[in-house]
Each structure stands twice: as C-alpha cells, then as structure tokens.
Amino acid sequence: MLSQFLNNTSDMSAEQKELTQTPLLKIWVPGMGSSLGQRRGSSRPQFTNCPTMIVMVGLPARGKTYISKKLTRYLNWIGVPTQVFNLGQYRREVVQTYKNYEFFRPDNEEAMKIRRAYASNALKDIANYFTKEQGQVAVFDSTNTTRERRGVILSFAKEKGYKVFFIESVCDDPEIIEANTTQVKLSSPDYENCDKEEALVDFLKRIDCYKMSYVPLDEEKDRHLSFIKIFNVGSRYLVNRVQDHIQSRIVYYLMNIHVTPRSIYLSRHGESELNLLGRIGGDTGLSSQGQKYAKALAEFIRGQSIKDLKVWTSHMKRTIQTAEALGVPYEQWKALNEIDAGVCEEMTYEEIQETHPEEFALRDQDKYRYRYPKGESYEDLVHRLEPVIMELERQENVLVICHQAVMRCLLAYFLDKSEDDLPYLKCPLHTVLKLTPLAYGCKVESFYLNIQAVNTHRDRPTNVNVARKPEEALQTVPEHL
Amino acid sequence: MRGASRSKNTQDLDKRVCMTNCPTLIVTVGLPARGKTYISKKLTRYLNWIDVPTKEFNVGQYRRECVKIYKSFEFFRPDNEEGLKIRKQCALAALNDVRQFLTDEGGQVAVFDATNTTRERRETIIRFAEQNGFKVFFVESVCEDPDVIAENIVQVKLGSPDYTHCNTEEAVADFMKRIKCYENSYQPLDEELDRDLSFIKIIDVGRRYLVNRVQDHIQSRIVYYLMNIHITPRSIYLCRHGESDLNIKGRIGGDSGLSARGKEFAKALGQFIQSQNIRDLKVWTSQMKRTIQTAEALGVQYEQWKALNEIDAGVCEELMYEEIQQRYPLEFALRDQDKYRYRYPKGESYEDLVQRLEPVIMELERQENVLVICHQAVMRCLLAYFLDKTAEELPYLKCTLHTVLKLTPMAYGCKVESVCLNVDAVNTHRDRPSNVDVSRLPEEALLTVPDHH
Fold it and tell me: What does this gene product do (chain A) (predicted)?
C-alpha cells in the first residue's frame, strides 16, 4: 500500500541510492541495504504469490498422469518450480505387491484405511515441498473422484493458505481409453507378472470400482471452485473461475496440447564461417561444409516422407540458407535467433578470456543464469522461446532449424532437463534429433548426416574461480582455425 | 504466432506466412447489452495490434444507416414483418462487406457483431462462410446478472444515436423492451446441438467459459485473450523514466542513470502517485538502470520486466542522430521511410517490440491498477494498443519525458489524462522529416532532430 511510502522522502536525494548491476544476472539493484529485499533476477516477474495445488480429477486411464507430467515439465521449464505427487506411487511403496483390483473396491474397508493414510502422507509431502523446498506448484495426481475426497484436499489447502485449481479429464471414447490402457497401464509395475489379457481385464474392473462413486465437477454445485474440465482429449473445455496468472497460463497450455502422433525434428544450421573460426554469435553464412549439410538435410527430410512438414528457421542468415536448400516453404521466427552474446559477439573464447576474464568465469559458475553484458542469458532465451514451444505443441510435424543455445533450450523442454543440465546439452552441428512423444515422455533418435563439421561444444572447466589461470579457463575450448 | 518480421530490405519473396491459412469470421452471439460490441471492439484492437488485419462489422450501424430515425423497440418485435426484412437486409449487407474485406482487401479476421441469437441466423452465416472459404468462430456472451446489464445500458446504450432524443428513463424502458423482443427466440449455443461448431461461451463476464473445438492458432490466441480480459474499473499509468544522462546529450539507447532533473522527476512521480490514492498499485519497470532508479524513488515494491527494455538500436546504440546520419545515412533514411518496420542493424524494429511486449499487454489486461515506468519506443507501443493507433502512427506518438498518462477504460475505449509533472526535461521526439529519400542532404535528414547539448 502506498502508505508504506518511506517517511524520509526529504532524504531521498542523499540516499537516492546508487544502483549497481549484479555481476551474474546484470540486474540493477540498489547499492547498499535496500529495505525492499531481494529481487528475483529473471527476465519477467513470476506472479506467484502463494503456492498452488493442482488437483487432478478423473477415472483411471483418462490421461491424468500424462497431463500431470507434461504440465509439470512445462512449468519447470518456464521457471516455476513444480512437482508431481502421484498417489499410485505412494500406494506402491506402502502395498509392495499389487494383487488385483479388489484393493480398489469401495467396500474394502481395510484398503480404504490404507488409501486414506498414504493420501494424507502425500499431502504432508506437498506441504513440505512448499515450505522447505521452495516449490511453487504441486500437482496432486490421483483420481479424486468423490466430492468428499476433494473436500479433504480443499480443507487442507485452505488451512495452509494454498490456492487450488482442479483439472478434470472426462472421456467416454472407448478407443481412447483402450489406447491409454495399452500404452501405459499394462506396462505399469502393478502388472509386471500378468499377461496382457489378465491385466486388461483386471484394469477394467478397477475402473468400475471408481465409476460407481464418481462425482464429476459440476457447473452449478462447484461454481465456487477454480477448475478446467477437459472433454474427450480437448474437443471441449469448461473453465471456471481462473484466479490468477499461473492458472491462466496453465489453462492456455492445456488448451494447446494434443495427443495426435507426430514428430519434431531439431537441427542446427549448417556449419557457418564463424563456426570455423571458433567465433561465437554473429550473422554469417554457411561454410562449404555447411552448404553440404543443407543438401544432406534436404535428402534426409525427403527420405523420412513426413506428412505436412512445417519448417521453421530463425532470422539469421545461416539457418535461412540451410532451409533454402530444402526447397520448401519455411517460416522465420525472430524468437529462434541465437543467444545474444552482447559485447562478446563474434569473439573467440580466447578473446573473451583475454578481454573479459571475470565475465568468462562468472559464466562458468552459472551458465544458465549468466547474462552477457548487453546480451542475454539462457534464462532469457527460455522466456523468449515460450511462444515457440506453445506453437510446437499446437503443431504436428515440424522441423526447427536453429542454433546451439536455442536448440539446447528446446531440447531441455522436451526431455525435461534441469537448468543445470540445459546449457551443457550436446547439440553438435550436422546432426538431426527426431523427437517423438511416447507414453509419458519423448523418444529421441539422433541422425548424424555424415558431413564433417567443427565441434562447438565447450564443457564446463574444472576451475570456475575468477582467480583461475587462463589455461584453466581455456581448457575445454574446442579446436578451431 | 507471428509470421516473419520482414527485413528492412524486403526483396522478392515475402516469407511472412499467415497465422491463418484462410480468413476467419468471428461471430458474436447474445442478447442486447451483453457486451458483444465491447468484446468485438477490444478483440479487433488487440488483433490489429499484433499485426492481424481485423475489422468489425456492427449490424446495428448498418441498421442505423438504413432506418435513419429510430422510433422505438417496436422495430425489433418478432412479429414486425417490415422490421425483420430490413434487419435481414442489413445483416446481408454487412456480410457482403465482410466478404470484400476478407477476400479483396487483405483482411484476415472479420468480427460480425450482432445478436445472432437464432440457430437459423447462425446457419445462414455458416453457409456464407463455407461458400467463401472462411473459418467461423462464435463468441457468445451469456449474462443474467441484472447489475451488469444495467451498467452496460447506462455506459453505452443511453449514449447511442438511437436514444439521443430520449431522457434516461424513457431510454432504459425502451431498451428493456427491446431485449425482451429477442428473449423468446433466443437459442444459445448448445454443448450437444452445436458440438461441431467452434465457439467460446463467456458466462457472467468471465466467471466461466465453455470452449468448443478450437481449430487453429488464431482461435487459440483469441480464446486466451478473451479469458484474460475483465471489466473491473481500474487505471493504467504510463510514463517514461526520468530524464537520463544520455537523453541530455541527445544520444539514443544505452543504459545510463538519471540526470539531476530526472531524479527530481522520480521524486515528483512518487508524490503524484501518493496523491492519487491508488488501490493496490502494481509498479513495473524495465531492467534498465533509468527506469529502476525512477521506481526506487517511489519506495514501493516493483517488478522488473526485460520485455519493457527500450528498443535495441543495434549498431546505433548511444549515437546521436547527427552521428547516425554521418555514419549510416542510408539506414537513417530507410528508418524515416518506414519507421514501424525498420530494424536497426543488429537491433530491433517497432514491429519486433510489439511482439516482445505482447506478454506485457496480456498481463496488463489481467491486472488492475498498474504504473508502468518504461521508455519512449516501448511506451509508444503500449499506448498504440490502448488507443488503437495504426502502425503508421505508432512510432510518432508523443511520449514526452516527465509526463504521466493515465488511461482509464471507458465505454468502448479509453480515457486519457495527461499529467505533466512540471520538471523540465529535454525533448526527445523526432518527427518524420519531409524528405525521406536516400539521396537527401544531411540538413534535410537532421531537420527535425530535437535540441540537445
């Protein structure tokens, strides 16, 4: 509130604090002792004031775990610490061996007791995640099919001051349910020792156990709750009382994902002239090897016989030149441009070490958050790539021709890599990665198109101390002309 | 997803791919006073701002052109044969103009703003769209809250040309009867019966939404936008950072701190904000020193957005206009030729800026009272969104230092109040010179450069 306006306004000029730029993030902060505390350094405000519980609702085999994992992956990638709490896993820890569907019978008193107990443990773990582990979103992945159970969760959340957002998946299409069951249930630890037929029969009986007591979220009775109801894998949505920014983003994301089989091809541009010289950034054209790669890429793509392939590039010459060789229409995205290395653009690592040794060390200390002076960080890159990811989710078959840092960010999204791993993912030149969504994750196939290229991957050296010797800093620099 | 920002040297193939392969017809549905025109205009403004050529076609306006003087609600009675004939004609005339806009004039989205409350009328539109290869997306507003409806009527109906000759009470009475004329034949979009259509049903001004069969990217963006807007009264304050050291020297860009006068402005801004007694004000800045220094003087919490950083002038960063003319006369001329799309070498264009500001706009829509402390080009982009300025006007909007603009949504638009905080500052506004030709003389290029040290 504005009433918290500092009383010493008259002292403002003396105190009008000198700002200093934090060395790693290049964020301007008041010099000494700001009464306003630490500011988050990322490129955009997070808009999460209190923790949020996302509560899944739905019969078995309705895609709850699929949605939970995918949503969690997305939220973590955009910088919102999120974790899934899957009740099935809690059950498997408590009830070591799964016998059969009878465990889920609504009249099985003993099992009910056990189920309530581990559900309660899961809630405790969620509280712990929020308070001790700086989590911001917890996805409670369970059927939660009765109003009673949802009531328990709501009370818990209210007591702790957490927001609650329900995601219900409703599906009556027997084909989809069967496909789900085959894809993920039959290979579950529960059915390790069964043959497919037995497993299927048992699983269908399991679903029946829930059906009788299933009370879906209701437009009227639950009108005070915040939720999205997803019908038949996204042909229809009912959205009620979106409370805040993160819920709005979640709804937008859920409305853009689909389950139609497709593949995403990621590749860098062909080797560029600056690549050969060991220089970073810039906007040069392809070297002769790079041009060979472009042709090889065209052949490879033709060989894959991909239906309705979309091709995307950045606005930089080297990706466009690569796409040109394909002879098909392509779309340019400025958001796919390589990370801006600011004052270090077009330098070799040796030159960076010479002219900016401290910057060079800071980068090795925290490569994800480090922002080049007058440039960007990987963290900035992720935020600028978010619309690309959103559109990739909407699309089907796409080939993205981009750059090393950009490709690392996209790959990290698909393969659920952490901020620590992301900047060191291997994305060599002249290699195409084919990503195909599978079950709860992504299958990766790597195709090296047999055209020689320089290596541009610089590993984290052992000594990241600002006081290190040049040789130590340059230890992992790949060879170049 | 935006297609390519064309490079400034647009040559042969325009690699911009449309967001939509075929044009889209957005069709509003709902009883009178449910916010259809409000939504139509706002959505149109947003789509145009993100570079999707959009136009709204309000059937009520066609009716007013046809039936010069509005007598009373009787025109809308379902048993008024003559009235029905005219109304149908007007709808068809509007659809005809829609066709022209989408097919001949390069439009991508047309918003057909009418009640469209019967399935029969909607069928007509769907057939029309099919014949012309347009996609159809319905936006229905359902609201039974009498307070909301009453407020709508007061805000926009009473001021309508239909009621210029009535007093408030007569107007309200007549309008309520008008609504009644539609109620009996109203067939809302139905989950079952209309399950093959693409639509969003907005219930109670956004309390609840039903979204069916979103077909493509643009519909997905429209749904996201509609789900983020609200009508809670609030104000948005826009201002630039206080005068900076580089401002005084007439240099563009950079990341310098505030001058002495700039610091004075920051103080004055603090006082101004306090005097406004704004409820729950959020303060946003960029990540550049000068906006942060300005915010620091307010003594309240603020959030930093990298997206609010000033336009990147690439190789021209920290140069004076005189230096740009000297070193890059060609670039300087190109910029004057098309200031919106021109991209600085290794820098950005206004077009790029709009794209990077989109999440800021989306969040501004979600928020209530916000003060945004930003930069000249950035402020122009934001202002253009709120005041519906074209790409041609945008780069020349006047956003002077040390002046706060208070924007308050009102009826179908935005009220602007300009508050100059009476602290002197240099002028940083450079108008388009008369000669933008590449072969112009330096004096002609520098004609409109504002004074500086």
Answer: Synthesis and degradation of fructose 2,6-bisphosphate.
